[in-house]
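Non-heme chloroperoxidase, pasting as requested.
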Amino acid sequence: MPFVTTKDGVEIFYKDWGSKSAQPIVFHHGWPLSSDDWDAQMLFFLSKGYRVVAHDRRGHGRSEQVSDGHDMDHYAADASAVAEHLDLRNAVHIGHSTGGGEVARYVAQYGEPQGRVAKAVLVSSVPPIMVKTESNPDGTPIEVFDGFRSALAANRAQFFLDVAAGPFYGFNRPGAKVSEGVIRNWWRQGMTGSAKAHYEGIKAFSETDQTEDLKAISVPTLVLQGDDDQVVPYKDASRLQAKLLQNATLKVYPGFPHGMLTTHGDVINPDLLAFIEA
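C-alpha cells follow.
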C-alpha cells in the first residue's frame, strides 16, 4: 500500500487514482473515519477524467497509530506531506466535517503559499470554531464534547454505532430511509482507527479556532451544508465560513443531514462538479 512519511516520522496512507496529468481533486475525511468515506465521490470524479487523491488522517484508517500529533496543525502538515510527495498542483481540496478544518488550515498555511491550490470546498465543516466561548456564544457547549469523550472511553464500539445509526446521517428522523450498509461502513471505518486519536481528535475539531485560516484563503471556495445537520449546526458553521472567506459561494440544502455526501451524493456530486468546472 502507498504511504508517505511525514517530517515527524509518521506513515500516512493515501490513494491516488487516475491520470497523473489530470487535474487533482484531494479529499479530506471527517472524524473518526478514513479515506474510504469518499468512495462515491472518488469514483464519480474519476469517471469525469480527474485525478483523485485521499489519505487517512494520522491515527485513522490505515495510517500509523501514533501517540501524538492529533491536532489541526499536524493534520494540515500531514496533508501537505501528501501533496508535496505527489507534487499536486492546481488542485481542488474538498473537506468534510473535521476534514473541512484540515482543508482550511492546509490551504491557508501550505496550499496557497506554495501555489498548489486552485479551489477549495468545505462540506458540513467545523470552522471557524464549534465550542461555545465568550466570542462564540452560539457555539456548542463544552459539555456536549465531554459527553462524546466519556462515551468513547466507556464503549467506543457502541458509541460509534449510535452516532452512525442516529444523528450523523439523520437516520433518527421520522420517515428516514435507513441504510444498514451505511451504518456498518461508518462503524468499520471508525473502529479501524486508534481510540487515542479519536479521543484527542474531539478537542481538535471542536476547540480549534480557525477564524484566521478562513480569512487568509483567497481561492474560490464552495461552502455546502444541510440545514438539518445535527452534528455541526449550520448557523454557527457554513454561514460564518461564507462571511469570513474572501471568495465564497454558499449553498444550504433544506433537510439534508451531516453525512449528506453519502445520503445525497446524487445531488451533491453534480454541484461539486459544476463548481470545479466553472
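Note for the archive: The first strand starts at residue 3 and ends at 5.
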